[in-house]
Amino acid sequence: ATFADPDVGWLATLDSTDPRSPVFDVWRTTDGGRTWTKAVLPEGANRSDTMGAADFSVVGTGHVLLWIEGGMPNGWTSDLYESTDAGATWSGPRTSSPGVSGLATFADGTHGVVAGGASGHDLIRTSDGGTTWESVRYPLPAGATRKLTTFPTPARFWDARHGAIAAIYSTPDLIPMLVILTTADAGATWTVAATHVDQGRVAFLDAEDWVEVTGASVGLSADGGTTWSTWAMPSLPGAISDLSMPDVRNGWAVVRDFGCHSGCEVSLVATTDGWHTAAALTPGAPGARPLASGTPEPTASTQVGLDVSALAFSDGRNGLAGGEAPTGGDSGANAAEGRIERTSDGGRTWDVTSYSGSPVLALAAADGLAWAATGCLDAPARRASSRARTAAGPGRPPHGIS
């Protein structure tokens, strides 16, 4: 879901469970997510059964770009949509050339970067609004292997020229290294700003304040990666699958056991002191449970009704949690539908919004903006692989990481 201000926003979903459907939906809210209406958009090169992730970039007041990532069935070709009236209407699609697919970010209406490509380790840029694309070279630390490089999150631009992206390199001995690359020319060239022997996720709050979260530690830089302070990460009952940080102190994470295949438990964990300590939250139930041991108690999806797969907070109090919940009735014991819940007190209490559609897979937020991706109810394999990410333009830092 994308919010241009605390009241107006959108989310993108499939139109139906029918893979032959030629359209998909962009839902719009004008009351902070309590109620939603939809607009129907034509599909491009990516049909319902091959459509990948949805990436939103807010590049100006009312100016939003929507990137639909393509995959192998259509030659790694992606589709770009554009709105200049805050999502009331959309133009497109503008279809990319083959091989241009991955995590998309636009710094403004003309300059954008896609991380991944068909190989998974390319950086590709446009300077004409997505009409043409070119691959760019980026530096490698000593001992790193380009073919073993991945980009876990999209690039982040804090103005039309300057930005950063986190990459995970691996040595020939498969030792992971997290490397932060920066650009001063809208992605045409890149330099190494920081290198750490570990892997994790980085929240670029602005040009100077960066937070790196790994499974074992937390790192904070207040000078654009030149120096770092680190401390131990509270023990978590699994790996972070989604992270949202609006500032250096407040953060929320969805934690799950990726080794679990059925009956899995999901935890929604929060911090108010930069991950020195953490507490488990329960959407649908009041109160946070402080963790005396520093380890959150897993929150079972059957306990709360909502299987939380994603979350997004725009500040220390206002946020969204999305996932799927059982429908009950005559549809079968495993029938589920998407649900979005909202909080205005940092997660202590939650209200169910009126959204009811495809299961919500991922959310991200930026200064009152939030993004979500959802999946087809009849396609569990796609639900497991889909994702949504944010890409914010100048003055709109992303606080959600997926």
List keywords for this structure.
globular, 2% helix, seven-stranded antiparallel sheet, 2 helices, single chain, five-stranded mixed sheet, disordered C terminus, mainly beta, 402 residues
What does this entry look like structurally?
Mean pLDDT is 74; it is low at 284-304 and 364-402. It is built from 2 helices and 35 strands. With 402 residues, the protein is mostly beta strands. Strands 22, 23, 24, 25, 26, 27 and 35 form a 7-stranded antiparallel sheet that branches. The chain has a 5-stranded mixed sheet with strand order 8-7-6-5-34, with no helix packed on it. Strands 13, 14, 15, 16 and 17 form a 5-stranded antiparallel sheet that branches.
What topology emerges from the helices and strands here?
Layout: E1 2-3, E2 9-14, E3 23-29, E4 37-42, E5 54-60, E6 63-68, E7 79-83, E8 91-95, E9 102-106, E10 112-116, E11 122-126, E12 134-136, E13 145-150, E14 156-157, E15 163-170, E16 176-183, E17 191-196, E18 200-204, E19 210-214, E20 217-221, E21 229-232, E22 239-244, E23 251-256, E24 265-271, E25 279-281, E26 288-290, E27 299-300, H1 301-304, E28 307-313, E29 319-326, E30 336-343, E31 351-352, E32 360-366, E33 369-374, H2 380-385, E34 388-392, E35 400-401
Parallel strand pairs: 5-34
Antiparallel strand pairs: 1-2, 2-3, 3-4, 5-6, 6-7, 7-8, 9-10, 10-11, 11-12, 13-15, 14-15, 15-16, 16-17, 18-19, 19-20, 20-21, 22-23, 22-35, 23-24, 24-25, 24-27, 25-26, 28-29, 29-30, 30-31, 32-33
